[in-house]
Amino acid sequence: HHLFTVSLTPRHIYQFHQRNGFACVLLSDVLELVQFLFVVTFSTFLLCCVDYDVLFATRPLNHSHVPERAKVTLPDAVLPASQCARRLRGSGWLLFLLVLAGAVWLCRLVTALRRLVGYWEIRSFYIRALGIPAEELCNHSWQSVQARLLALQRRQPLCVPRRELTELDIHHRILRFRNYTVAMVNKSLLPVRFHLPLLGPIVFLTRGLQFNLELLLFRGPAALFQNTWSLRPQVKRAGSRRALARGLARAAVLLGVANLALCPCVLGWRLLLAFFSYAEGLKRAPGSLGARRWSLYARHYLRHFNELGHELQARLGRGHGPATKYMDSFSSPLLAVLARHVGFFAGSVLAVLIVLTVYDEDVLTVQHILTAITLLGLVVTVARSFIPDEHAVWCPEQLLQRVLAHVHYLPEHWQGRAGRAETRAEMAQLFQYKAVFILEELLSPLVTPLILIFAFPPRALDIVDFFRNFTVEVAGVGDICSFAQLDVRHHGNPQWLSEGHTEAPPERQAEHGKTELSLMRFALSNPRWRPPPPARRFLGHLQAQVTRDAATAPPPRHLLAEGPLAASLLSEDSALAPEGLVASVLAASGLVARDPRFGQPCSTASATASLLASLRNPLGTPPCGAPESPGEHQCPEDRWDKGQGRLSRSALLAEVASAEMSLHAIYLHQV
Q: Does the keyword Membrane apply (predicted)?
């Protein structure tokens, strides 16, 4: 039997694993359909079936048949069913929106049913082919599933021309389109960066714009891909580039016009979802809008080639704390003085209102008193966010290095300029306020059509050239982005230690060392993967450079703040290992310079190299699932340690790989 069918591909197998099995997929899809119905029904009820004059007590009850009462109840404010239906029939635009919503819901229902049929097939594949029962899926990491998939391929031929599939092939099939998008962001091809009057340079990339770009390039009727694995033949011919560019630009304009026509409906839907999603949280915790999150642009800019979604999420999650500390370390003295006084005035009035309501709860019946309390609380919360912590220490360079250790990519011109306002403004484009994220999503129905109509067409020819020049066909995989092959020889940058290992002209080099860093991350995350000879030579050259630099640094035991390296890595709380190693590196130059046993200060690069040298094969055992380790399906890292409540070995291996990649990121940026 063929292993990979239309509904059974590595991408769907990965999605099934990440969505935690068929039961979770079924429940999630059903509740999403119910949520859609609830939003439409509840909104219609609020528009047509509520008598707001009665609810706000602006006139007496007019449809209640009970004697006059002092208080109005909710049933009193609800119109009778006949009157509600009459108001609904009298609104033509509302009937049109309901019909449109019904059509959308039916489309989502059909899509969900088709998806569930495919996921049921994948469930059977997990049980019968991979030997993973449904109830045990949550105990298996994706690396375990991938190892079983490759082992199955070795026993049973797949529907591919070649016998062997590698870890890289699996990632290519899962991330085919995502790798193209990451590469285009890396080469600044997508229209997401703009320079506006008064606002200056801005980045605008929302989920709506991303959906339209993917529809335009990969999945739509005029897309450059003819199916999910191959480009249209004319894309690969240089003589067709201008005709293709004109067709792509025309499709972008038509898509923009369609977005513009649907803008009122989409904008109204976004406003409803935002209100139902965030209103209660804003009332309960007004400061939640001041929390920060990685922007959608950051998730493309900071993503490695061939990095799966859960791996990116874990890495950015580790960097969230350091990034928050870095952004919070900036403060405006003028705003701080203003915020202290505004907070004092608003807090004083709020305190009086709270005391009055505690003394006599009838104060709450005063008109707009709850509104005043809510707004004053919001003002106090916002004012406090501008007041810096009096115990904070100003050390932006070290904080930015901690961020770099986890996110792995930062612009070169930020080095030595971590304390500048310009650097903070650029960092805010990657690490934005939640309020900014919500505002951008609300503005997306208005801005996305303008980008598609005016900003995309001038770049259509460059995008067509990109797909022609940076696409390679791999047997058994299809057309993929050439950057995703992690080929240092064809896409390496000499500034990132690949000098002598690359033949790429500047226009074919990846920016910010993405090829080199992606290669290292993939090799560390997939220890059984055998890199091709050019990649193997580059990794060997890097290890030799690390060894030379480590010779000029003190031993690791003098760099680690909390005991030797083994204690740091093999401790019960191994999750602190990467952060502890990074902190040791950043403190090395100052601490070692004051240590009389060393005659000269230790550079950050040397300290990092010393720790990297000590991290080589720290466990002294071959990786699980390697050819020399017995038992392909009984990998120690897959066994759940019920006594300790953790995946002991897999967690340790993941933290060691994370620590080593963090150190490599710091080291490469230093040298």
A: yes
